[in-house]
Write a structure and sequence with these properties.
heterodimer; A: elongated; B: mainly alpha; transmembrane helix (chain A); ABC transporter permease (chain A); membrane (chain A); transmembrane (chain A); Permease_MalE (chain A)
C-alpha cells in the first residue's frame, strides 16, 4: 500500500490538466521556478497582445455581423444588469457609511460628503468595482463558452473553414463588451450614488439636496472615468477570450480556463486602474 | 384509440416483439400531447422561480454549514487533507494576493492624491489610505481575487468529483465525504482568507507608502506617522479581519454547495463554476454591508 506521503499526486481535477504529464519531470524550484513563471508570463503577454491586435484588426476589416454583436450585447449587458444593480447598490451604501465614519473623526462637517463621493465615484469607484464584477461574470462566461468550443473541437472546425476564431468568437464579444461595459458602468454609478444618498440621509442626516453636489466633478474626472470604461470593456473579453482559446485537456480544462479568466481579467482591471489613475493624476492635476 | 395510456405503457413498448405481435401491429408511436415541459416562464413566475432557487441554495448552505460545524466540533476533520488544501489554496494564491495588494495600496493613494493636494493634508495621507485599506478595500479585493481563484477551482474540483461519482465511491467506502472533503476545504478556505488579508493589509500599506513617496513626495516616515498617530485604532484592523472571516465562510460555503450540487455532466461543472463565482461575489458585497453596520 503506498504510504500517503507528501509526494502523493493530486487528484486529476486538482489543477491544470497538463500538470500530470509535467510531474514526471522534477518539480522546478527556486530560481528555476521563478524563471519558468517569468517565461510563461512573457509568453502569455505576447499571446494576449497578438489576440488584442487581431481583434482590433477584425473590428475594422472583419465580417459585418450585427446579429452576433447584438446577441452578445444581450448576454453581456442585459444579463448582468440585476447582478450589477445589487452589488453596486450595496457598495454605495458601504462606501458612504465608511466615508461618513471617517469624516466624522476629523471634521464633523458632512456637507461635502456627497460631492467628494460623487467625484470618487466618477473617477474611480464605479468603473473599477463594476468592472471587477463584470470580469467575474462576463469573463467566466466567455471563457467557459469558448473553452468548451475548443474542447469539443468546434474552434478547430472553424479554422478548417478558413475562419479565424478571433473574428467569429472574440470580435463580437469585444465590440459588445466595450459598448455595454460603458452603459453598465454609467448605470451602476447612478445606482450607487442613489443608495449612497439614501444612506447619507438615514445615517448622517445629510439632505439629498446637499448630497447631490456636482461641483467637484470636472472634465478630467469624466475623461478618466470614460477612459476606464473603455479600457476595462476592451480588456475583459480579450483576456478571457484568450484564456478560453488556450483551453486544453477536456472538460476539466474548461473549469481551469474559467478560473484563469476570472483571475487574469480581475488583475487586468486592477493594473489598468493603477495605470490610468496615475496617468490621469499626472495629466489633470 | 388502441394505445393505452398508463404506467405500463413504456415498459410494454420496450418489452420486445412478443407483446407487439400479440396485439396491434407496431404502428408508429401515437403522438400524445406532451405536457409543456419547458415553456418559457415569464414575469412573476420567473421571479418566483428564481426566488425559490435562491432560497433553496441558501438553505442548502445552511444545512452544509451545520454538517461542517458538527464535524469540526467533534474533531472529525481529515488533517492531511486540511494541510494539503491549505497549501493549494493559501500558498498558491500568494502571487495574486501580493499583486492585488500592492496595486490596491497604490490606487488608494492615487485616488486620494487630488484631495491631499487640494487641502495640503500630506500628513493625513497615511490615515486616509490606511482607513480605507484596512477597513474595506483590502478585505474586499482580496476576497474577490481569492473567490476567482480558489472558489472557482474548488467548485470545479468538487463538481468533477460529483460528475465522475467519486463522492458516491467515498460513501460506498464508508468515508464521510463531509469530514474528508468538505470540512477541510471549508477550514482551509477561511484560514487562507484570514491570513491573506493580514498579509494584504501590510502589503497594501507598503504600496501606499511607496506611491505616496513617488507621487506626492510624502516620506514613508510621515506616512507611518499618519497611520499611527491615534486616528486609527486596533478596531479598524479587527473590523477588516472580521470581514475576512465572514467572506471566507461565504466563499467556502457557496463553492462547496454549488460544487456538490452539480448536475448534468461536464457542462454542468462549467455552469456551476460560473454560478458560484457570481453568487459568492454578490454574497460578499451584501454581507460586507451588514458586517460594516453591525461592527459600528
Amino acid at each position: 500500500m503506498p504510504s500517503p506521503d507528501k509526494s502523493s499526486p493530486d487528484r486529476p481535477s486538482a489543477g491544470p490538466p497538463s500538470s500530470e504529464l509535467r510531474d514526471l519531470a522534477p518539480e522546478a524550484s527556486g530560481v528555476a521556478a521563478l524563471g519558468a513563471a517569468a517565461l510563461s508570463l512573457f509568453r502569455s503577454a505576447r499571446e494576449l497582445y497578438s489576440v488584442f491586435v487581431s481583434t482590433l484588426y477584425y473590428c475594422v476589416k472583419g465580417r459585418r455581423e450585427p446579429g452576433a454583436v447584438l446577441l452578445q450585447m444581450y448576454e453581456i449587458g442585459n444579463k448582468s444588469l440585476f447582478f450589477l444593480t445589487v452589488v453596486m447598490g450595496f457598495i454605495g451604501m458601504i462606501m458612504v457609511f465608511q466615508a461618513g465614519q471617517q469624516a466624522k473623526r476629523v471634521i464633523p462637517d458632512l456637507t461635502m460628503l456627497g460631492a467628494t463621493y460623487l467625484e470618487l465615484l466618477v473617477r474611480d469607484l464605479a468603473a473599477s468595482i463594476a468592472a471587477l464584477m463584470l470580469a467575474t461574470r462576463v469573463g467566466a462566461g466567455i471563457a467557459a463558452e469558448i473553452g468548451s468550443m475548443v474542447v469539443t473541437e468546434q474552434v478547430d472546425a472553424l479554422r478548417m473553414c478558413a475562419a479565424d476564431p478571433i473574428d467569429y468568437l472574440i470580435k463580437p464579444r469585444f465590440i459588445a463588451s466595450v459598448l455595454m461595459t460603458t452603459c453598465l458602468i454609467v448605470w451602476s454609478a447612478a445606482v450607487s450614488f442613489a443608495t449612497g444618498m439614501i444612506t447619507a440621509y438615514s445615517m448622517f442626516d445629510v439632505s439629498p439636496e446637499t448630497f447631490m453636489n456636482v461641483s467637484l466633478v470636472d472634465a478630467g474626472d469624466l475623461a478618466t472615468g470614460l477612459a476606464k470604461c473603455v479600457a476595462y470593456g476592451a480588456a475583459i473579453p480579450v483576456v478571457s477570450g484568450h484564456s478560453g482559446l488556450s483551453t486544453f485537456g477536456g472538460s476539466e480544462g474548461v473549469g481551469w480556463a474559467t478560473t484563469r479568466a476570472v483571475v487574469n481579467s480581475s488583475l487586468a482591471v486592477i493594473v489598468l486602474n493603477m495605470l490610468i489613475s496615475a496617468a490621469a493624476f499626472l495629466i489633470f492635476r | 384509440m388502441t394505445s393505452p395510456a398508463g404506467p405500463g405503457t413504456a415498459a410494454r413498448a420496450h418489452g420486445g416483439g412478443a407483446l407487439a405481435s400479440s396485439g396491434a401491429p407496431p404502428a408508429p408511436p401515437v403522438k400524445r400531447p406532451r405536457a409543456p415541459l419547458a415553456q418559457e416562464p415569464s414575469g412573476v413566475h420567473q421571479l418566483g422561480g428564481s426566488f425559490l432557487q435562491i432560497a433553496a441554495t441558501v438553505g442548502g448552505m445552511a444545512v452544509l454549514a451545520g454538517k461542517i460545524a458538527a464535524r469540526v466540533a467533534t474533531l472529525r476533520v481529515d488533517g492531511a487533507e486540511f494541510m494539503r488544501n491549505l497549501y493549494r489554496m493559501g500558498v498558491k494564491s500568494m502571487p495574486i494576493v501580493i499583486v492585488t495588494a500592492l496595486f490596491t495600496g497604490a490606487i488608494m493613494v492615487i485616488q486620494a492624491a487630488p484631495l491631499v493636494e487640494r487641502f495640503g493634508a500630506h500628513g493625513l495621507l497615511g490615515w486616509g489610505a490606511g482607513f480605507g485599506t484596512l477597513r474595506e478595500i483590502a478585505p474586499l479585493l482580496t476576497a474577490l481575487m481569492i473567490n476567482g481563484r480558489v472558489g472557482a477551482n474548488n467548485t470545479a474540483e468538487l463538481g468533477t468529483m460529483v460528475v465522475t461519482e467519486q463522492i458516491d465511491a467515498l460513501r460506498v467506502l464508508a468515508i464521510d465525504p463531509v469530514s474528508f472533503l468538505i470540512a477541510p476545504r471549508f477550514l482551509a478556505m477561511v484560514l487562507t482568507l484570514l491570513l491573506s488579508v493580514i498579509f494584504a493589509d501590510a502589503l497594501a500599506l507598503l504600496g501606499a507608502a511607496l506611491t505616496g513617496d513617488l507621487l506626492l513626495g510624502v516620506a514613508p516616515a510621515v506616512f507611518y506617522n499618519g497611520l499611527t498617530s491615534g486616528l486609527l485604532d486596533i478596531g479598524d484592523v479587527t473590523s477588516g479581519l472580521v470581514k475576512s472571516v465572514v467572506f471566507g465562510v461565504v466563499l467556502a460555503l457557496s463553492s462547496c454547495q454549488y460544487g456538490l450540487g452539480v448536475t448534468g455532466g461536464a457542462p454542468g461543472v462549467g455552469r456551476a463554476v460560473n454560478a458560484t463565482v457570481v453568487a459568492s461575489a454578490a454574497g460578499i458585497f451584501i454581507l460586507d454591508y451588514f458586517v460594516s453596520f453591525t461592527l459600528d
